[in-house]
Design a protein that fits this description.
With 151 residues, this protein is an all-alpha fold. It has seven helices and no strands. Helix 1 packs across helix 3 and helix 6 runs parallel beside helix 7.
Length: 151
């Protein structure tokens, strides 16, 4: 049977979630559009009616409320949430380089579950950008596509 959330930790998480949503002037639907939990899930957590949030749900809470990764879990552990750090100009330039590298190798779109375009146009965090750029730097230039016969 699913654990009903009645613990002080869950009530505390709900309080932080509600306060952050109001601070950002977001509706439940807007939180969900930003990658957060569904409106129904959000309100059930705030009311303490949902089983203990999974790691996936905690990550969605962080995403939807603009908290740094791990913030919702930190609140459950007695800590406080942190705001997601803003991207630096260097981060934005690396992101643009990633997009250019993807296009150079023939990638025209990237689909990944749960990835939302941020307000600044970015899709990937700085660590993911660096890893992808490193991988792409070792790839051929994309002039030969897999659907073309090899010579």
């Amino acid at each position: 049977m699913a654990e009903v959330l009645t613990s002080p930790e869950i009530a505390r998480l709900g309080t932080f979630m509600s306060a952050r949503r109001v601070e950002l002037a977001l509706t439940f639907e807007q939180v969900a559009e930003r990658g957060g939990p569904s409106p129904k899930s959000f309100t059930r957590i705030v009311r303490g009616l949902k089983p203990r949030p999974t790691g996936t749900t905690l990550a969605k809470i962080d995403q939807g409320l603009g908290w740094a990764q791990g913030s919702a879990a930190a609140v459950l552990a007695g800590g406080t949430p942190s705001e997601k750090p803003a991207y630096s100009q260097e981060d934005l330039e690396r992101h643009a380089r990633l997009v250019a590298e993807l296009q150079r190798t023939g990638v025209t779109s990237v689909a990944a579950r749960g990835i939302k375009v941020e307000a600044d146009g970015t899709q990937f965090g700085p660590d993911a950008v660096e890893a992808l750029l490193e991988l792409l730097s070792r790839m051929p230039d994309g002039s030969r596509r897999s659907d073309q016969p090899s010579s």
